[in-house]
Write a structure and sequence with these properties.
By secondary structure, this protein is an alpha+beta fold. It contains nine helices and 18 strands. The protein has helices at about 10-35, 40-60, 125-140, 160-175, 220-235, 270-285, 310-325, 345-350, 375-390; strands spanning about 60-65, 75-80, 90-95, 110, 115, 145-150, 180, 190-195, 195-205, 210, 240-250, 255, 260-270, 295-305, 335, 355, 360, 370. The strands form five sheets. The chain has a six-stranded mixed β-sheet with strand order 1-2-6-3-7-16, sandwiched between helices.
Amino acid sequence: MTTNNLSEAAAGSLFRCIDRAEPEFYGFLKQMVSIESCSGDTEGIDRLGDSIADFARRKGFTPVRHPFPLAGNGLVLSSPGTEEKKPLCFIAHLDTVHAKGSFARMLEEADGCLYGPGVVDCKGGIAVALLAMTALRQAGFTGRPLKLVLTPDEEVSTCLSGEEGIAFIQSETKDCAAAITCECGTNGEAVVQRKGILKADITIAGKAAHAGMHYDRGVSAVREAARKILALENRSHIGRITYNCGLIQGGTTYNVVPEHCRIGVDIRFGTSSEQKEAMRVLEEVAGQSYVPGTTSQIRLYGRRPPMEKTDGGMELFELIRRTGERYGLEELSPLLNGGGSDAAYSAQTGTPSICGMGITGRDWHTTEERAEIASLARRAKLLAATAAQME
C-alpha cells in the first residue's frame, strides 16, 4: 500500500474542517438515531436511507439505492476522484437490533454519551465515515474516489438480502484500495480479524405419550435435545470454535412425553478450515440418535465467513495506528473479535480490510447502548488523515 506523509499544515487544515462540521454531524447522528430501523423493518430502514441520502447529497455526494425486497434498500454514497486511482471504501449498516420503542433513554445525553438504538452500532459509524469524507473534500483531498457502502441487514447476517446482498458488498469493494468498516468501536482497538458465524436449527422428532400411563411408549424429543446440546457445547474451544445452543423450544404440556423439540445453535469459528470442521461436527451430532427412536434435521438459518487476518489488512492497520500515534488521536492495538461483520465480505475479495473503526461506545446490542460523543470528531480525524496519506 503506497502512502504519502501528511504535512502538519495539511493535517491542521483537515482537522479544522472536521471541528467546524462536528456540531452539524452530531445533529445528523441524532436525526439518524431518531429513525428506528430494526432488521426487517423495511419501512424504517428505507426512511433512514432516504434521510441519509438527502443529507449526503447536500454535501456533494451521489447517492445510489440498491433495493432488496425483504431487507430494504442498500445505499452507496460516492464522490469521484480527479485521478485514476482505486476508490477508498467505507462500510456501515442501516439496521439495528431492537424492536421499535425498546429504548427508554432515547437520545438522552449523560456523562459525555448519547443513548439510543444504533447510536454506536452502526449509525455512529455512518456519521464518522461521512464526516471524514466531507472533510477530505473540503480540504482539497480529491485525488482518490471515496464511497460509503450502507447495507440493510448486517445484524441478521445478511439473511434477508441473501446472496444478492453479499454480491452487493463484494461488487462495491472488490476493486478498492482499502475497505474500512465503521462498525461499533472500542477506544484503543481496531479489528483485524473476526470470527465467522453459522446459525442453524436442529429440529427433533420423537413420539408423544401420556407421561403417567404410557411413559414407556413415548420417545422424548426434549431428552434428545438435551443430549445434543451437551454434545455440541462440550466441543467448544474459546480459541477456536464455539457452539452456543441459545434457543430451545419443545413439548406441549407437563403430562405429555414431548414429541417435538427445536434447538437454535450459534457457531463461531476463526478460519475457513474451522468452518468446515464446525459443519462436520454439527452434522455428526444431528445425525446421531442418543435417544432411540428420535430423528433430526438441520436447517441453516444464516452464515457469515470469517474475516481472516491478511498481510494487506495488517498493512492498513499499521497505517491507521501510526496516524493515530502521530497526531495524538488514539493508540490502537489489533484485535481479534468474536462477532461477525460485513468486513468479512470485503476481505474475501482480497481488498485490504479493517473493522471496528466507527464511533466508540459501550453496551451495543442492549437497551443501554451509548456512544462517546467526543469520539465522533476523533475517529473522523483518524480516518480522514489515514485516507489523506493514501492520496
